[in-house]
Specification:
Number of helices: 16
Largest sheet: 5 strands, mixed
Strand content: 15-25%
CATH topology of the largest domain: TIM Barrel
Structural class: alpha/beta
Number of strands: 18
Helix content: 25-40%
CATH superfamily of the largest domain: Metal-dependent hydrolases
Distance between the termini: 45 Å
CATH architecture of the largest domain: Alpha-Beta Barrel
Length: about 500
């Protein structure tokens, strides 16, 4: 660098033509760039968070009076106070008296859905007010508002387990975005029924599994795009011809080292799915209590269970809002929900005279009690039994469906899982480590360990005492960047 300075100083004493001066300056700039590239590559940023009680996501005893040293975007050291070598110039964050867990993971959501019926014309057709073609285009162009909502809610990873093919591209886009959660996506779903309500000229959500060839080609295409899973939306377990198509697609999934995801809500469907190779069941068995055969199948296959306890009642809550019976609740003290969604939800009652709102339907909506009806006893009992049997379980909300809002719904889901009898300390693992495993990213994040990405949240209250203390979130760190959650939402 001294050579460069000398050259700039010396130029005043030279008698050079304009052309020679330009040549001389070009040489100087080239040398400067070379030196800058050679010397700048060793610079790193360091930050240490000290004093908090840390739950690392593995389920063991918490680390009290902890120290987490972060180098650039990864964890360089984690342990008790004094375990990490902190050098001069390291930024220090005092978190004494606070609690830290890995960033939360919503292992079941949908980017193409808004949280209301404008994105679900099959449930309530609002095309006259909100044309689905325009809604779908807007969802594709504006995923950032959900990135903000999730980070603001402490969610640093999401799994889109069914949507249009463009959702797969979000995986790479989000990875390169320093202010986005990590994304895994499955893309369009295979289903026994036509997908007309969601069909667009250039894309679709549902692909009818009308032949073995369709299933095989679909798996080949989605795998080539880079999908993290291929999802089956409902299966006809009692239809042998249909199940032969499912098995052909499942075989192709295995060839491509992809994973089979199945929406199954009956015990018969769930058993057939696991026997076919399902690695992730998204939704509770809700028609009857599970049996030992099902538990053993889950263990043999290593299948993950995602109960989605509240999404069904979320539809009822959204219908009640549309019928002007009761507003759709938004518990959002940190302002995480984006403005467009907030406006959509708060104006739901404009549809109180919609043809869907028959008097008989309104009577059923009036009879619903949101304090006691957000999940069924069968779903809660089945979750508890699988938990006690040691089956891996994840937290997934099915966010985007009417009444289940992106980001903040994860708290309601975790609280309902706790109500089923799951210990909050184990819920921390389900909402972090297990979610990363479902996303096939357990080597990168989900636990707080050396060399993993620095994704974590800071809480004011102890989540191991009551999982509702996850709501005491004050800060979120994504890829090594620490943010006050009240400053995250920009949309």
């Amino acid at each position: 660098m001294n050579v460069i300075i000398a050259l700039f100083i010396g130029i005043r004493s030279l008698d050079l033509t304009t052309m020679r001066i330009r040549t001389f300056l070009t040489l100087i700039i080239s040398i400067t760039l070379f030196i800058g590239c050679s010397s700048g590559s060793t610079e790193h940023t360091y930050l240490v968070i000290k004093g908090a009680t840390v739950f690392d996501g593995n389920g063991g005893q918490p680390i009290e009076n902890s120290e987490i040293l972060i180098r650039d975007n990864a964890i360089d050291c984690i342990g008790e106070a004094g375990d990490c070598s902190v050098t001069m110039g390291t930024e220090v964050v005092d978190a004494a008296g606070k609690f830290i867990t890995p960033g939360l993971i919503d292992a079941h959501m949908h980017f193409f859905q808004t949280g209301f019926f404008d994105s679900r014309p099959d449930a309530m057709d609002l095309n006259e007010t909100y044309p689905f073609t325009e809604i779908a285009a807007y969802q594709e162009r504006n995923p950032e508002r959900y990135y903000d909502t999730y980070l603001c809610s402490g969610v640093t990873g999401v799994y889109d387990v069914g949507g249009m093919s463009w959702s797969v591209a979000l995986q790479e886009q989000a990875e390169e975005n320093p202010k986005a959660p990590h994304v895994a996506a499955a893309g369009p779903l295979l289903t026994p029924v036509p997908g007309a309500p969601f069909d667009l000229p250039s894309d679709r959500v549902l692909v009818q599994l009308d032949s073995e060839e369709t299933g095989v080609k679909m798996v080949q295409y989605m795998s080539a795009l880079g999908s993290t899973g291929v999802k089956f939306w409902m299966i006809r377990a009692d239809d042998e011809d249909y199940m032969s198509r499912v098995r052909a697609a499942a075989d192709e999934i295995e060839k491509h080292d992809n994973q089979m995801i199945v929406h199954a809500t009956t015990l018969e469907q769930a058993k057939a799915a696991v026997k076919s190779g399902a690695k992730l069941l998204v939704h509770s068995v809700q028609d009857r209590l599970i049996d030992e055969e099902f538990i053993n199948l889950m263990k043999e296959q290593g299948t993950i269970y995602n109960p989605t306890l509240i999404v069904g009642a979320g539809y009822t809550v959204a219908f009640r809002g549309a019928a002007d019976i009761a507003p759709i609740p938004i518990t959002d003290p940190n302002g995480c929900v984006d403005q467009r969604t907030r406006e959509l939800i708060t104006t739901a009652s404009q549809f109180k005279d919609h043809p869907r709102m028959s008097e008989a339907f309104k009577d059923r909506l009036q009879a619903f009690d949101p304090d006691t009806g957000m999940s069924s006893d069968v779903m809660l009992q089945n979750l508890k039994r699988l938990y006690e049997a040691g089956i891996p379980i994840v937290v997934g909300t099915d966010a985007g469906n009417p009444g289940t809002l992106h980001g903040i719904s994860i708290y309601d889901e975790m609280e309902m899982m706790q109500e089923a009898g799951i210990d909050p300390n184990d819920l921390i693992v389900m909402a972090t480590k297990n979610g990363a495993m479902a996303m096939r990213r357990e080597d990168d994040f989900g636990t707080l360990e050396k060399d993993k990405l620095a994704n974590l949240i800071i809480l004011e209250s102890n989540p191991a005492e009551d999982i509702s203390n996850m709501r005491s979130l004050s800060h979120v760190m994504i890829k090594g960047k620490l943010m006050d959650v009240t400053t995250v939402q920009r949309h």
